[in-house]
Amino acid sequence: GRRQRQPEPRGVGSTMETGGGGFLVPLLLLPLLLPGAAAEEVVLLDSKESQAELGWTSHPLNGWEEISGVDENYKPIRTYQVCNVMESNQNNWLQTGWIARRSGQRIFIELKFTLRDCNSIPGVVGTCKETFNLYYAESDSDLGRSIRENKHTKIDTIAADESFTQGDLGERKMKLNTELREIGHLSKRGFHLGFQDVGACVALVSVRVYYKKCLSTVQNLAVFPDTVAEAAFATLVEVKGTCVNHSEVDLDSPPRMHCSAEGEWLVPIGKCTCSAGFEEKDDGCEGKNGHSCSISILGPNQFISLLYCVQLPGIRAQCKQMELHFVNLAFVWFFLFFFSSL
């Protein structure tokens, strides 16, 4: 579904290099958004929407554990947690199922989690951590249930803005953290996400993975199709527009727009204009009053309207359709007259 624009995430992929089919523009152009040009998020994974067990791969067995819980709105969800803070040298891995990339070029990863304050746990000095690591493993097919650390690429170390204490547990306070990261320039059909715990007391409340696209729109009488955002942050993808019905391209300035990496349309250039005999209305072109070829079946001026209509070059195609309807109507009148006289 459509969502509001997210703040620019930290992490991998915020580069100034161009991607295929795009070009760099000054950042001053980025505020030139069009009205109603909000990005569309195409969701590839949302763990909160799962009604059954997630069934992700955990290693070793005494590491990450899948449990039932509730989110910030007290909706039942499936989560993963780990809290092996008493022993040092923890290396607990959790790997999602294979996530098909589809058309995504720049993949966003939204994590919601809670993390325990180590100072609120007695006897864990030196062994308790307050971070975990986020990885991805790119592949053309499901890697199965084996976790190969050497196949994973690190995205970032994730820390909590707020950690909870024993007192928060007693008061049933949920100090939920939200972190947004991204990966870009993917070349294979999909990927797995990996979460490495090194000794924290953490619960993954939800994992949401998506990419952005510019939604199909009409601007300056030109239709622009759905366009997937590029991977590079400052890259704009130029998209050619197609003139709406009964309009013609301005040859000196054909319609173009640019899809930003945030999935927003900006920098419109060129336009289409309504053909002769038509005028602009509601992002389209319709026939001017008296010259639109729409006639009443029983109207008294059909012959006059038809003869006048075919003289207008800009709407001859529409009038051809009316001619066919008129001929069919003439046959109906003929048969009615013939059979009524029998």
UniProtKB/TrEMBL annotation:
Supply the name of the protein: receptor protein-tyrosine kinase
Q: What keywords were assigned to this record? A: ATP-binding, Glycoprotein, Kinase, Membrane, Nucleotide-binding, Receptor, Signal, Transferase, Transmembrane, Transmembrane helix, Tyrosine-protein kinase
Q: Name one GO molecular function term.
A: transmembrane-ephrin receptor activity
Q: Which InterPro entries match?
A: Ephrin_rcpt_lig-bd_dom (IPR001090), Ephrin_rcpt_TKs (IPR050449), Galactose-bd-like_sf (IPR008979), Tyr_kinase_rcpt_V_CS (IPR001426)
Q: Where in the cell is it found?
A: Membrane
Membrane topology designation:
Single-pass membrane protein
The record's section on Pfam families has: Ephrin_CRD, Ephrin_lbd
Q: Which GO terms describe its cellular component?
A: dendrite; plasma membrane
* Sequence ranges assigned to domain Eph LBD in this UniProt record: 41-219
Report whether Disulfide bond shows up as a keyword of the record.
Answer: no
The leader peptide range reads: 1-39
For this UniProt entry, what is the primary localization, expressed as one broad class?
A: membrane
Instruction: Say which species the protein is native to.
Output: Chelydra serpentina
**Regions that span the bilayer:** 322-339
A GO biological process held by the record: axon guidance
What EC number(s) does the entry state? 2.7.10.1
Respond yes or no to whether keyword Glycoprotein is given for this record: yes
